[in-house]
């Protein structure tokens, strides 16, 4: 698939929640017909899918026309490769375990660098369901690691003693302590239900890095409570 700038901008708008062609066109400063044409191409490649909304009644009791919107077919990553005599694009979907590290590249630079270092130097962390960035100081990096099972959480806890990550350049390396807050999804939910200050504070400051949807869900629940 050839992905030009405008097609990527349309994908970006849909990911942000702007799902109707007219709204996307307004955001991008182009015509609705142009957006629809590009959406048909993206739909053919299986990147987006069409959704036809149900009839709605207006204030006069008249039914409005069907309104078409678009959604992402599933989570995916587009990888660009460029080297002498060869270049191309490939789509990875859905994101597999070994591709989780790609999600880190969407983070601000400081979070991206430190989290990438942690994942590359301790690749077993990729077995977690969710990873969130908690904080960083000159000598410590803290991550929230969430697992599905208690057995996996216990395994992670055994490995977290004396963890470090090495940052900086080859001529100026810095070794930081890596502190993990390891919990199961059930522990997090129960902690929030009990208004436990540890879990409330942790969820408040955590920035989701690799998330199967759980971290964002509990952050939203925390805001409502």
Can you describe what's shown?
This protein is of the alpha+beta class and 225 residues long. It has two domains: 5-92, Orthogonal Bundle (Arc Repressor Mutant, subunit A), CATH 1.10.10; 97-224, Beta Polymerase, domain 2. The protein has helices at 5-15, 21-28, 32-44, 109-121, 150-159, 185-193, 197-205, 214-224, and strands spanning 48-52, 68-72, 77-83, 86-92, 130-136, 140-147, 164-168, 173-184, 207-210. Strands 7-8-6-5-9 form a five-stranded mixed beta sheet. A two-stranded antiparallel ribbon has the order 1-2. It has a two-stranded antiparallel ribbon with strand order 3-4. Helix 2 (21-28) crosses helix 3. The protein starts with a helix and ends with a helix. The model has no long low-confidence stretch (mean pLDDT 85).
Main attributes of the structure:
alpha+beta; Arc Repressor Mutant, subunit A; Beta Polymerase, domain 2; 2 domains; 5-stranded mixed beta sheet; 9 strands
Task: Set down the secondary structure blueprint.
Layout: H1 5-15, H2 21-28, H3 32-44, E1 48-52, E2 68-72, E3 77-83, E4 86-92, H4 109-121, E5 130-136, E6 140-147, H5 150-159, E7 164-168, E8 173-184, H6 185-193, H7 197-205, E9 207-210, H8 214-224
Parallel strand pairs: 6-8
Antiparallel strand pairs: 1-2, 3-4, 5-6, 5-9, 7-8
Helix pairs in contact: 2-3
């Amino acid at each position: 698939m050839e992905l030009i700038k405008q097609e990527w901008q349309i994908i970006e708008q849909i990911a942000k929640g702007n799902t109707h062609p007219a709204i996307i066109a307004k955001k991008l400063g182009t015509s609705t017909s142009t957006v629809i044409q590009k959406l048909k191409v993206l739909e053919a490649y299986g990147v987006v899918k069409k959704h036809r909304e149900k009839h709605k009644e207006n204030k006069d009791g008249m039914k409005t026309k069907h309104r078409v919107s678009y959604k992402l077919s599933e989570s995916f990553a587009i990888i660009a490769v460029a080297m002498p005599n060869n270049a191309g694009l490939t789509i990875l979907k859905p994101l597999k375990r070994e591709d989780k590290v790609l999600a880190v590249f969407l983070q601000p630079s400081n979070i991206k660098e430190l989290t990438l270092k942690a994942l590359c130097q301790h690749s077993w962390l990729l077995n977690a369901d969710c990873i969130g960035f908690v904080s960083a100081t000159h000598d410590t990096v803290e991550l929230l690691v969430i697992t599905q099972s208690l057995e996996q959480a216990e395994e992670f806890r055994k490995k977290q003693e004396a963890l470090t990550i090495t940052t900086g350049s080859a001529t100026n390396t810095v070794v930081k302590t890596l502190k993990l807050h390891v919990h199961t999804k059930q522990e997090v939910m129960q902690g929030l239900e009990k208004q436990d200050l540890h879990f409330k504070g942790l969820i408040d400051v955590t920035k989701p890095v690799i998330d199967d949807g759980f971290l964002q869900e509990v952050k939203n629940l925390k805001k409502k409570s």
